[in-house]
Amino acid sequence: ITMDDLNAPHSMGTTIIGVSYDGGVVLGADSRTSTGVYVANRASDKITELTDNVYVCRSGSAADSQIVSDYVRLYLHQHIIQLGQPATVKSAANVVRLLSYGNKNFLQTGLIVGGWDKYEGGKIYSIPLGGTILEQPFAIGGSGSSYLYGFFDQAWKEGMTREEAEKLVVKAVSLAIARDGASGGVVRTITVPNDRYVRFF
After folding, report:
1. Do you know which Gene3D superfamilies this protein is assigned to (predicted)?
2. What is the pLDDT of residue 35?
3. Residue 123: inside a domain
4. How many domains would you assign to the chain?
5. Is residue 7 part of a domain?
6. Segment 102-159, tens digit of pLDDT
7. Would you name the residues annotated as active-site residues?
8. Where in the sequence is the domain holding 83, given as residue range(s)?
9. Is residue 200 part of a domain?
């Protein structure tokens, strides 16, 4: 390990996943944060609450993804106060998209927004590097995602139960951790609604 490694930006070479099921969404992530080749934190939390019903999975530059999440949380808090009702998943994802696209020359972060609202139920939105927005039944991101596309083509299906979706997310993150040197630590998941924060070691 050189000083260049220790002074490199904190990056979340990562595996992040969002899966919708009948009635909600499951989000998952590994927990390794790297500084060059040095593991700066083996138990970081890459799933961030934006509102009671919407969460974001963060990948790329840790600093960039944290500041985007902080701004979005602030905007949504104001939005909730003004409207007197919870923000929708779509409005949260669009605020993330506006910030990511408006600052695309400065940010190095890919995000997955997932949550549940009474209008559209469980929704997953992927906002990759560059700030485009994709609504998908499932989304995978980070350096570990390249190992998982074929697995998801085979394993994901319409109308999964909550338990099936949770098992799929844990298995997928575990598979990526086994192959991707930049992913590691523990698998963290959150299920919305009925948010139960689960840690699998």
Report:
1. Glutamine Phosphoribosylpyrophosphate, subunit 1, domain 1
2. 84
3. yes
4. 1
5. no
6. 999 999 999 999 999 999 999 999 999 999 999 999 999 999 999 999 999 999 999 9
7. 14
8. 13-191
9. no
